[in-house]
Design a protein that fits this description.
117 residues; mainly beta; four-stranded antiparallel β-sheet
Length: 117
């Protein structure tokens, strides 16, 4: 089994920065895509950013230029550096890992990010 543990959420003023981390434990395929999703109050969960095991990245248009996703394969950890935060970035952020060879998707428990205006 794979478990994902997120950290780094909190309260920040608009324009500030936060860094989220997500560590995966258990048996995880080397070939996988790690990412971050978020769900704002009353909204559907949406993709924020993903990064493949080869380093390829994908971002939602709303965060391009402000957020940076990265990973440390040796630590099975994915990071999300969030700069120039806006009140509309307020949401619960979820870590996600997709292992394509076994078609399994894993989710973290979520971490709250609140941006005050």
């Amino acid at each position: 089994q794979v478990q994902l543990v997120e950290s780094g959420g909190g309260l920040v003023q608009a324009g500030g920065s936060l860094r989220l981390s997500c560590a995966a434990s258990g048996t995880l395929s080397r070939i996988n895509t790690m990412g971050w999703y978020r769900r704002a109050p009353g909204e559907e969960r949406e993709l924020v950013a993903t990064i493949s095991s080869g380093g390829g990245t994908n971002y939602a248009d709303s965060v391009k230029g402000r957020f940076t996703i990265s990973r440390d394969n040796a630590k099975s950890t994915v990071y999300l550096q969030m700069n120039s935060l806006r009140p509309e970035d307020t949401a619960v952020y979820y870590c996600n890992v997709y292992a394509p060879f076994i078609s399994r998707t894993y989710w973290g428990q979520g971490t709250q990010v609140t941006v005050s205006s």
